[in-house]
Amino acid sequence: MTNREYERGCTPSNVDENGSNINMTDCCNKLNVYDWLKDINDPLTQNKYVEIRFKNTRKGIYENASDLILQNGDIVAVESSPGHDIGIVSATGHIAMLQMKKQKPSKDNIPKKVYRKAKASDIQKWREAISLETPTMIRTREIADNLKLSMKIGDVEFQGDKTKAIFYYIAEDRVDFRELIKKMAEEFRIRIEMKQIGARQEAGRIGGIGPCGRELCCTTWMYDFNSVSTNSARLQELSLNPQKLAGQCSKLKCCLNYELPIYLTERKRFPQRIVSLKTKQGEAFHIKNDIFKQLMYYEIRINEIPVIRGLHVDKVKEIMELNKKGIFPDQVFELEKPGGRNSVFKDELNSESLTRFDSPDKGNTNKKKKKKRNFKPVRNDKKD
Fold first, then answer.
1. Which of 259, 155, 150 is nearest to 207 (CA)?
2. Which of 1, 234, 278, 331 has the most CB within a 10 Å radius?
3. Which of 171, 82, 185 is nearest to 140 (CA)?
């Protein structure tokens, strides 16, 4: 068996079939868990719960009822309904408890049990189940296309005992797949479970590289997906460009929510209602904010020249209070000396010639002079 046959979302570096262990040291697993407590010898470390990883981003917390000595990478048989499933241990000890808190299981959700370490017969059947996933997915897509169902089969995952398969699909509207399940059951002879996922979940299962150069967050560490709106980008003074704000799932990037609480906290110092400022030099209109520098940028025309200057929030509030009293302050947007930080925009097309970028004409010294040929007329002076 090759190492790639054991892939359930990553490429293992070493496989020990006799010991039922897969070495994932050099592998970047999907939803990978780094055990930062592995070097601490704690005799009170619990082994009651372990985290089991299946295909792609499917994971779960299982109870080690038999007190098995398990370590990361062990192939185990776990409880399923019906039958049993085969998975790989991804976290044990205190890290598994922290992962269980992170997944926020409900109180009524009782963890399923770990039966045993996988036997040779379990691994053989698991290998056969894995080899059936891709052909089954392709055939299911053909059946759904023949039935003209508006759905996309994104992935198929067989259970370790080959008695059940989970079909992950995407659909915008509600789909009546009763006829599809009937045909699939007749052809595949297995128990079928249809699970609808969204575009974000599909991107997490497939994986990829984001524009930041790192692996997708939904693939590496995210368990739940919070709603993302364009208001998150607007509050962070980002350009509402769909091509830049959308991720590989064609939805708004989840990372738009990461820094949003900080922006919301800092924006409390800014005026709730932004109005134009009136000065003796004219009326200044608001352009944008610099949240962390506490600056508000305004534009005003001085001598028909647009000038943009950043004012501190406290200064803006002071001018707004003066405007309410009918007082117009002076020398707020005065032009600074050369080297200042004012941004003065000029019409370069009118101020200089369009040929200002052309190199000066130094003469045609390097050009070869064309020789002028003087053609003399030919005379026929011959006499008869």
1. 155
2. 278
3. 185
Domains of the chain, residue spans: 3-118, 126-201, 226-269, 271-344
Residue corresponding to tokens 């608001």: 286
Under 8 Å between Cβ of 208 and 216: yes
- At 231 the three-state DSSP class reads helix
d(CA 191, CA 161): 11
Encoding tokens for residue 368?
């070869």
pLDDT tens per residue across all 384 residues of the chain: 444 455 565 555 566 656 566 665 555 557 777 777 777 776 666 678 898 988 888 888 898 888 888 888 888 999 988 889 999 888 888 888 888 887 776 666 788 899 989 888 888 899 889 889 999 999 999 999 999 998 999 889 999 888 999 999 998 888 888 899 999 988 999 999 999 988 888 888 888 888 888 888 888 888 778 888 889 998 888 888 888 899 888 889 999 999 899 999 988 888 888 888 888 888 889 988 888 888 999 988 888 888 888 889 999 999 989 998 888 888 777 655 444 454 444 554 454 554 544 555 555 555 555 555 555 555 555 544
The whole-model pTM stands at: 0.68
Residues 126-201: name the CATH superfamily.
K homology (KH) domain (3.30.300.20)
Phi then psi for residue 177, to 5 deg, are -105, 30
136 touches 122 (CB < 8 A): no
CA separation for the pair 266, 264 (Å, rounded): 6
Residue 99 · residue 46 · CB < 8 Å:
no
